[in-house]
């Protein structure tokens, strides 16, 4: 307790996360991950029309709104036995693909890059040298010495004004910042470009779903009817606009994100040995190409890997008792069966009961319940979910496309397979899969156009729209691979209403508190043994936590060994981006 | 909710202290939005219920239109004053008209041409989505005129009815796919103020927490006011079934 440093809020994430870490001799020896925010959406949707629930569930997050909506409509469709038309499947895939491109690129540049790129140091760069580097790694056109010189002048103005704005309060000048000034300048230039770029790719959602954030979805398919002969529906103009946005998105991934990722990673190879984590990985699989009911058609395969053993991939079953949630360390009422028992999400409950310290407080009492996040387990084991888990499961399943992509990146960086199980591995995996998803999304788009060309314009199956046709009771599960990892919603429907609804989100798996047998979840595991060179500027903690792309929000507050507040190291606040 | 050691309420009070005016961005700030929907498990509270001594500009929507959010700031910077607000505190420039009033599918409504279900022939023709639950007729926002994401599209243009996300307590006014009845007035002469007046009456009566109750009383009052609109609607009902 005495020498536990506290990082709260962790910034440049989505939501509210607090890390309390105990440091001994420059290393983390114990760590607790807590979310101090709760809304109770699962209780709010109870009793509502299941066809409406996607809109509530979508608001779980302001970033990956699309995946929560898809997961919700899938859960209802699964419960009622509704198969959606192939075009609706492709439109959902295209929207999810666009989300991956947007979400991962924004995470890399705007949430994670400043852990590795020193903005102020970029002022020392020789723009001509940056231009040379840029042109040696990519064909991206904005790469002249003049361009980088202009960027440098913009940063100079920021710094001289004393108002760094979005670049305020970073870890500038930290000894762990290893990039040459020229690469820092490249990173800052592309940070700014990515800000402009990201508002374009989301227009895919606007065309197909009406707006972004929070595009519209529909139980049974999609609402964007096709009519190639009218402006009333998706016609050639609308579809071509989507195609143009996807192509431009893919070009940015290929010519900016991936080259930058590899260039920056090559200076931080030591992070291939830090932030190892649990070693258990799970993917639900996603991007169906022959229906949600046929997992063999998924672009991302489903499966579980235990103890980093890629030679054996276990199957995931959402319907049996394999997946359970525990609340032994979470601020909810214990289940009637006892504090140390778990429940399958169909039987799950969310009875909020905060028993933590009264604010303002300095430390959580981690001997008691210490988070609003519940603790999910697969066959009793903690799982890491996310891009790395997806790629490892695909790798283990023998998916050639995924294997080639992973092997290519390892060879480029000249690091062994073991480097994947790390902070660097997570961050690299996110980029590698963005490229894959960008390629696939063009395939989905081509499939959609071909279907229409061949005369299939169906976009929604409304046969079971009317609740009078539903069974008195039904239950279903919807799952996706959200950009942050395995996501599932479980629904029970009774008399046309939502009887129970439980969401187990990727960050529930990764950020959860300890289970009844004391097993740590992914954040806590990955932070163990992390070296912290300067407890006043715990950049290392932030790097590893950010490598998971947390969906919870956070600055860094530090305590000395007597529990005294040393400093409030404001990271770039999530409200500033 | 705790963030950075303090409750969100403490942060709000601290931030509001030196402010000249407050912009309540989005429905979370203006009416509690999704977490404030029944049964509001965490007691989510809109800003105007906590801060009473400052001008508050209400920008409802889940989310509000990005360009409208930017335009509000630009207005203040350019003219050094807040834009004109309606009785609910919303800038008239963006919330002065109903989505229905500027919707490009409005002529189909007037002609009685409706999609009967999603993806039917009428939906493919881009006919009016009113019968599929579109809340455009009761929602004050600029979605149909400004559109979304640099004018790319808006929900109705992409085939889905408006869910009314800029109206207070819209979550509890559903279901989303149930056709609205008793639509107040069909002319663009109807302004946000007329509804605003009723809504603030409801606040004064202290029944805002019981959204449904408030809504029923609102509807009742409007029903008597807009008989012309109701006659119009009945005629449309007869026409559409032909």
Write up this protein.
The complex is a heterodimer of chains A (577) and B (242). In chain A, 37% of the residues lie in helices and 12% in strands. With 577 residues, chain A is an alpha+beta fold. In chain A, the strands form 5 sheets. A 3-stranded antiparallel β-sheet of chain A has the order 1-2-3. The longest helix of chain A is centred in the last third of the chain and has 31 residues, at 423-453. Chain A is globular. Chain B has a two-stranded antiparallel sheet with strand order 1-2. Chain B has a two-stranded parallel ribbon with strand order 3-4. Residues 184-232 of chain B have low confidence and may be disordered. Chains A and B meet through helix 1 and helix 8 of A and strand 1 and strand 2 of B.
Summarize this, please?
The complex is a heterodimer of chains A (577) and B (242). Chain A is of the alpha+beta class and 577 residues long.
Write the layout of secondary structure elements.
The complex is a heterodimer of chains A (577) and B (242).
Chain A (H helix, E strand, L loop, with lengths): L3 E4 L10 E7 L2 E8 L6 H4 L8 H6 L6 H16 L5 H27 L14 H11 L7 H17 L19 H21 L1 H7 L26 H30 L15 E3 L19 E3 L17 E4 L48 E4 L8 H10 L3 H14 L9 H31 L19 E10 L2 E10 L2 E8 L1 H6 L10 H6 L11 H9 L8 E4 L5 E5 L8
Antiparallel strand pairs in A: 1-2, 2-3, 4-5, 6-7, 8-9, 9-10, 11-12
Helix pairs in contact in A: 4-7, 4-9, 4-12, 5-6, 5-7, 7-9, 8-9, 9-12, 11-12, 12-15
Chain B lengths: L1 E2 L2 E2 H10 L4 E4 H6 L24 E4 L6 H14 L12 H4 L3 H4 L3 H5 L10 H4 L18 H4 L45 H13 L6 H15 L1 H14 L2
């Amino acid at each position: 307790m005495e020498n536990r440093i506290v990082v709260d809020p962790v910034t440049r994430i989505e939501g509210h996360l607090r890390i309390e870490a105990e440091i001994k001799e420059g290393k983390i020896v114990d760590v607790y991950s807590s979310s101090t925010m709760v809304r109770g959406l699962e209780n709010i949707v109870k009793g509502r029309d299941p066809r409406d629930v996607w809109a509530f569930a979508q608001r779980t997050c302001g970033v990956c709104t699309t995946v929560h909506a898809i997961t919700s409509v899938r859960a209802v469709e699964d419960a009622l036995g509704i198969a959606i038309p192939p075009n609706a499947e492709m439109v959902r895939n295209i929207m999810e693909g666009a989300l991956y491109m947007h979400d991962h690129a924004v995470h890399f540049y705007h949430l994670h890059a400043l852990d590795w790129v020193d903005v102020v140091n970029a002022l020392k760069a020789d723009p001509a040298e940056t231009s040379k580097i840029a042109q040696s790694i990519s064909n991206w056109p904005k790469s002249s010495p003049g361009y980088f010189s202009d960027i440098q002048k913009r940063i100079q103005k920021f710094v001289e004004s004393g108002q760094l704005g979005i670049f305020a309060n970073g870890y500038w000048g930290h000894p762990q910042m290893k990039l040459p000034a020229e690469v820092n300048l490249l990173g800052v230039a592309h940070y700014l470009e990515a800000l402009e770029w990201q508002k374009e790719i989301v227009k895919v959602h606007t065309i197909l779903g009406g707006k972004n954030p929070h595009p519209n979805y529909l139980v049974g398919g999609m609402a964007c009817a096709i009519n190639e002969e009218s402006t009333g529906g998706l016609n050639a103009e609308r579809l071509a606009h989507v195609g143009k946005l996807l192509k431009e998105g893919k070009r940015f991934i290929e010519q900016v994100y991936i080259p930058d990722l590899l260039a920056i990673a090559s200076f931080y190879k030591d992070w291939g040995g830090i932030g190892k984590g649990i070693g258990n990985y799970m993917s639900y699989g996603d991007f169906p190409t022959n229906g949600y009911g046929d997992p063999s058609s998924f672009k991302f395969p489903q499966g579980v890997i235990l103890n980093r053993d890629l030679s054996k991939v276990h199957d995931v079953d959402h319907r049996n008792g394999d997946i359970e949630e525990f609340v032994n360390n979470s601020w909810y009422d214990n289940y009637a069966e006892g504090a140390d028992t778990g429940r399958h999400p169909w039987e799950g409950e969310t009875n909020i009961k905060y028993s933590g310290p009264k604010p303002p407080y300095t430390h959580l009492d981690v001997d008691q319940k210490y988070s609003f996040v519940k603790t999910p387990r697969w066959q009793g084991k903690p799982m890491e979910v996310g891009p790395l888990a997806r790629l490892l499961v695909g790798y283990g399943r023998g998916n050639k496309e995924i294997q080639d992509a992973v092997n290519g990146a390892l060879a480029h960086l000249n690091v062994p397979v073991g480097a994947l199980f790390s902070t660097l591995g997570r961050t690299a995996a996110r980029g590698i899969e963005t490229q894959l998803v960008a390629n696939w999304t063009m395939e989905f788009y081509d499939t959609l156009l071909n279907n229409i060309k061949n005369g299939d314009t169906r976009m929604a199956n409304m046969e079971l729209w009317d609740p009078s046709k539903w069974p008195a009771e039904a239950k279903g599960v919807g799952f996706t691979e959200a950009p942050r990892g395995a996501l599932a919603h479980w629904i029970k429907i009774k008399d046309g209403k939502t009887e129970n609804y439980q969401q187990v989100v990727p960050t529930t798996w990764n950020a959860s508190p300890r289970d009844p047998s004391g097993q740590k979840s992914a954040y806590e595991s990955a932070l163990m043994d992390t070296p912290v060179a300067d407890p006043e500027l715990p950049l290392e903690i932030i790097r590893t936590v950010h490598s998971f792309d947390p969906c919870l929000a956070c600055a860094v507050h530090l305590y000395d060994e007597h529990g005294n507040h040393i400093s409030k190291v404001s990271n770039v606040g999530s409200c500033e981006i | 909710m705790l963030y950075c050691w303090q409750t969100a309420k403490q942060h709000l009070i601290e931030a509001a202290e030196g402010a000249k005016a407050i912009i309540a961005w989005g429905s979370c700030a203006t009416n509690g939005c999704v977490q404030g929907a029944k049964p509001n498990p965490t007691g989510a509270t809109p800003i105007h219920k906590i801060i009473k001594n400052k001008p508050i500009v209400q920008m409802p929507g889940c989310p509000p239109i990005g360009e409208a959010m930017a335009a509000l700031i630009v207005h203040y910077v350019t003219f050094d004053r807040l834009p004109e607000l309606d009785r609910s505190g919303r800038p008239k420039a963006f919330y002065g008209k109903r989505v229905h009033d500027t919707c490009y599918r409005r002529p189909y409504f007037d002609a009685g041409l409706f999609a009967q279900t999603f993806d039917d022939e009428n939906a493919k023709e881009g006919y009016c989505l009113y019968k599929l639950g579109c809340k455009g007729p009761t929602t004050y926002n600029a979605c149909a005129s400004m559109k979304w994401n640099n004018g790319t599209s808006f929900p109705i243009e992409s085939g889905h009815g408006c869910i009314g996300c800029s109206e207070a307590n819209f979550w509890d006014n559903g279901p989303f796919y149930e056709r609205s009845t008793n639509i107040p007035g069909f002319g663009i002469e109807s302004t946000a103020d007329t509804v605003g007046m009723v809504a603030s009456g409801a606040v004064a009566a202290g029944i805002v927490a019981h959204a449904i109750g408030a809504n029923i009383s609102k509807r009742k009052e409007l029903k008597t006011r807009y008989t012309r609109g109701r006659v119009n609607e009945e005629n449309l009902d007869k026409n559409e079934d032909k």
